[in-house]
Automatic annotation (TrEMBL):
Pfam families: AAA_26. Keywords: ATP-binding, Biotin biosynthesis, Cytoplasm, Ligase, Magnesium, Metal-binding, Nucleotide-binding. It is found in: Cytoplasm. The active site is at K37. It comes from the Bacteria. This is ATP-dependent dethiobiotin synthetase BioD. It comes from Arenimonas terrae. Mg(2+) binds at S16, D54, E115. Substrate binds at S41. Its cofactor is Mg(2+). Homodimer. GO terms for molecular function: ATP binding; dethiobiotin synthase activity; magnesium ion binding; protein homodimerization activity. Pathway: Cofactor biosynthesis; biotin biosynthesis; biotin from 7,8-diaminononanoate: step 1/2.
Length: 220
């Protein structure tokens, strides 16, 4: 599979860290890989334009490094849900511009990692679901499970929603967002509940380099 869509069990599950680590894991064997954050809220004004921290991290983990406008075609200033951020910015997020940017990225590298927003059912716009984008790009989905109390239910609900939307869940990544959580006990439960391969578990390491974290991932 040449490209993936990364979603999470919720906001703060660790999608951005996992996406950057995935890029490094894909590149380990000498392949080229680029990241994409189609819609990003919470962007800061810079001399070069609006910039989002997660999108910049994806660029830093990419090889080659694409232009910012391709990685993040919809940059929204307010750090809130994309629907609200777009309304406050006076813009309407649309699918064609995202598809066009993705098509250009796909010509630049062997792999593209597309990071979603929030949880699976967080809309990209009033009339645009994440499932619409995944189907338009025909991307398999990787689920990042934020390992904390309640993660089993969140993971099962997300997996069911992905499949109900006609999309393909192909793997999951554990993300230790709560260092005190007994993730070891939940591993077999999540394995049975999700019935797709676990690609690895990222440790609780704030500020760790994605290249180092990628060593915790094992891609098929």
């Amino acid at each position: 599979m040449a490209a993936f869509y990364v979603t999470g069990t919720d906001t703060g599950a660790g999608k951005s860290v996992a996406s950057a680590a995935l890029l490094h894991a894909l590149r380990r064997g000498g392949a080229t890989a680029v990241g994409m954050k189609p819609v990003a809220s919470g962007c800061e004004a810079t001399p070069e334009g609006l910039r989002n921290e997660d999108a910049l991290a994806l660029i830093a983990a990419s090889d080659p490094r694409p232009d910012y406008g391709l990685v993040n075609p919809w940059a929204l200033p307010e750090p809130t849900a994309p629907q609200i951020a777009a309304a406050l910015a006076g813009v309407r997020v649309t699918l064609p511009s995202i598809v066009a940017a993705y098509a250009r990225l796909a010509t630049m590298a062997e792999h593209v990692v597309v990071e979603g927003v929030g949880g699976w059912l967080a809309p990209l716009a009033d009339d645009l679901e994440q499932a619409d984008l995944v189907r338009a790009l025909d991307l398999p989905v990787i689920l990042v499970v934020g390992l904390r109390l309640g993660c089993l239910s969140h993971a099962r609900l997300t997996a069911r929603a992905v499949e109900a939307d006609g999309c393909r869940l192909v793997g999951w990544i554990g993300s230790r967002i709560d260092p005190g959580f007994d993730a070891l006990s939940y591993q077999p439960l999540l394995d049975r509940a999700l019935s797709v391969p676990c690609l690895g578990e990222l440790p609780h390491s704030p500020g760790a380099e994605p290249a180092l974290l990628s060593r915790h991932l094992a891609l098929p």
